[in-house]
UniProtKB/TrEMBL annotation:
Transmembrane segments: none annotated. Keywords: Disulfide bond. Gene3D superfamilies: 1.10.530.10. Residues 113-131 form the Glycosyl hydrolases family 22 (GH22) domain. Pfam families: Lys. SMART domains: LYZ1. The gene is LOC117357802. SUPFAM superfamilies: Lysozyme-like (SSF53955). One of its GO terms (molecular function) is lysozyme activity. InterPro entries: Glyco_hydro_22 (IPR001916), Glyco_hydro_22_CS (IPR019799), Glyco_hydro_22_lys (IPR000974), Lysozyme-like_dom_sf (IPR023346). It comes from the Eukaryota. This is Lysozyme C, milk isozyme-like isoform X1. PROSITE patterns: GLYCOSYL_HYDROL_F22_1 (PS00128), GLYCOSYL_HYDROL_F22_2 (PS51348).
Amino acid sequence: MPPEMEAHSEQLMDIKPARESDEMEKMKTLAVLVLLGICILKCEAIGHCEVVKAAKWAGLDGYKGYSAANYACLAYYASYYDTSLHNSPTEYGIFQINSAWWCNNSRRDNKACKIQCSALLDSNILDDIMCVKRIVQDPQGLNAWIPWKENCKGRDLSHFNC
C-alpha cells in the first residue's frame, strides 16, 4: 500500500472506534428510553393528595388515631405512590399489602380483606384503602408496615396534607 494511503487508512481506523462509541451511546440512550416508556405505560403512580382524599372519603382521617397524612406517608414510603407495584411475591399495590394475611391469591383463599391481590394493582385505590382500614383495626395498626414505622411514625407529616 502506498505510504499516503497507509496514513489515510490509519486515520480511518482512528475514526472507527469513535463511531462505534457514538453508536454504543445511541444504543444505550435508546435502551433507557424504551425502559422508561415501559415504566410509563406499566407504572401507575398517583400523588399524595389522591391518597389523602381517598383516606378521607373512606373515613380513615382520624380513624384509630391516624390522620390521612399517615396514609399518604405510608404510600410514599411503601411504593412511592405506584399503584401497580408488585416487587415481591407477597406485597401488592400502593400500600404493599401482604398476601400472607390480607389479600387472596386464589379463589380458595379467604383472607381478612376479602379481595383478590391482583385487584390492588390498578389505579383505583379505594379497594386498597378499604383493605388498609381493615388492617388498621388490628392491634398493630399502622405499625404493621415497616416503612410507616421507620419513616412516618411520630414525625411531622404536615407536608403530606393537602
